[in-house]
Amino acid sequence: MRPIHHLRPRLSSTDHQVLALAVPALGALVAEPLFVLVDSGVVGHLGTPQLAGLSLASTILVTVVGLCVFLAYTTTGAVARRIGVGDRTAALTLGIDGMWLALALGLLLAGLVLAFAPGLVEALGAAPDVANQATRYLHASAPGLPGMLVVLASTGVLRGLQDTRTPLVVAASGAVLNAVLNVLLVLGLHLGITGSGAGTAATQLLMAGVLTVIVVRGARAAGASLAPAARGIWAGARAGAPLLVRTVSLRAAIALTVWVATGLGAVALAGHQVVSSVWSLTAFALDALAIAAQAMVGHALGAGDVTQVRAVLRRTLEWGVGAGAVLGVLVGASAAVVPVLFTTDPHVRRAVTAALLVAAVTLPMAGWVFVLDGVLIGAGDGRYLAAVGMATVVVYVPVALAVRAWAGGGARGLAWLWVAFAGVFMLARAVTTGVRARGAAWMVVGA
Question: What is the 3-state secondary structure (H, E, C) of 257-309?
């Protein structure tokens, strides 16, 4: 009889590299939402207006920072490509330029949020007591925006260097520090929601400082310039613009989905909040694989190794679809249990269960989409992603409007909404990215 260890499936070197990058990336991705969770837990003890104000302010901040995620994506691909070429100095010079761009953009956005916070909150229709709390949080947390964006850019640099462990350590440490500061400032010094915003801002700035020191140390060792270069910063902004458009298209689809859920009634809207939270949780695992694909594809293209690019594409797709299938089974199996954790309303529970079953079926396709997104971002194919991103929204709009008009409310309406979003919209993304990946136009080798 053969020894048992010979019967175990062996992981290839590509598998090991995928896991080495994806597992720490997943940890860092999960650590970030803990900031909002901790803030919510602490501020929730202050009262309902404070918690509602935090929800409103967090929505604004998450939207602002989410639109700037291209800072991480562009630096990951660009740095990985230069590393693949064998030019570490140029790689880190590009990374430093990306961090300067993040700092400049962060300062600009911080100023805008400080100036227009009351107007932004008022535009969202908050009651006066809630609006006051939201404005206070925005004013306190806005100074941390430069730190948040520098964290994005520096994390992208490290991912491009094939290092996802350092961002994990910094993100986890930041989550712990944020919890301590929130308890101290809010409950200890009684600074209210202002203390929560200040604690989060201070944490983000400290995280940015730690990551900057790490990247600068590496840049000095490689002989890279630390001075801001207008040409490099402008190049980074141009490279990031298409990914910004892509992100806007995704945000538009999500906002449209919420609008449709609102029109389907309170039961559907409440159920949608639960289902979208579960969907977001599964997205972390799939995003981690996309991050691994970004770094590995960029490196292989820089090295001019098209064979390796195809190998990475094939294997990461297998990982993505497989992970999506496993997550789908877990979500489907827990579809009747999850609603019990969130609500006592039997109508909402039925709606959540129906929509979760739809989401479960579509998760393997979502794994395909997330990974292909990462592959094409790593290849620097932002213009194509921007164009098809807008095209998929155009496809989704009439389907979403039809759901709002004819699906009805309750479980039936929410199920049809998730057929539209997780089915039609994600299918449109799967087809457009899949067609692109089958060709070779995106595989531009070299620096």
Answer: HHHHHHHCCHHHHHHHHHHHHHHHHHHHHHHHHHHHHHHHHHHHHHCCCHHHH
Residue 52 near residue 128 (C-beta atoms within 8 A): no
**pLDDT score at 141:** 93
Q: Are 417 and 358 in contact (CB under 8 A)?
A: no
Would you tell me the crossing angle of helices 266-302 and 410-418 to the nearest 10 degrees?
10
SS3 content of the chain, % helix, strand, coil (to 5): 85, 0, 15
Say which amino acid occupies 59: T
Query: Measured between alpha carbons, how far is 157 from 179 in angstroms, rounded to an integer?
Result: 27
> Which of 345, 292, 304, 271 lies closest to 445, judged by CA?
304
Give the helix/strand (H/E) hosting 388.
Answer: helix 382-406
Write out the DSSP string of 162-215: T--HHHHHHHHHHHHHHHHHHIIIIIIS--HHHHHHHHHHHHHHHHHHHHHHHH
Task: Put residue 405 in one of left, alpha, beta given phi > 0 → left and psi -120 to 50 → alpha.
Answer: alpha
Q: Contact, 425 vs 395, CB < 8 A?
A: yes
Q: Which pair of structure tokens corresponds to residue 78?
A: 């660009």
Q: At what angle do helices 230-263 and 410-418 cross, to 10 degrees?
A: 150
Q: Are 374 and 293 in contact (CB under 8 A)?
A: yes
Residue of 378, 334, 385, 341 whose CA lies nearest to 359: 334
pTM of this prediction?
0.81
The pLDDT averaged over each successive group of 10 residues in the chain (447 residues) is 45 75 78 70 78 79 85 85 86 91 95 92 78 91 94 90 88 90 90 91 95 94 87 82 88 87 81 81 86 84 85 89 94 88 80 92 94 88 91 95 88 92 94 90 73
pLDDT the model gives residue 411: 86
Domain ranges of the chain: 14-228, 241-447
Q: How far is CA 181 from CA 53, 122, 178, 193, 210, in A?
A: 19, 29, 5, 12, 17
Question: What is the rounded (10 degree) CA torsion for 215, 216, 220, 225?
Answer: 110
**Helix H or strand E segment including 73:** helix 70-85
What is the rounded CA–CA span in Å between residue 175 and residue 206?
A: 12
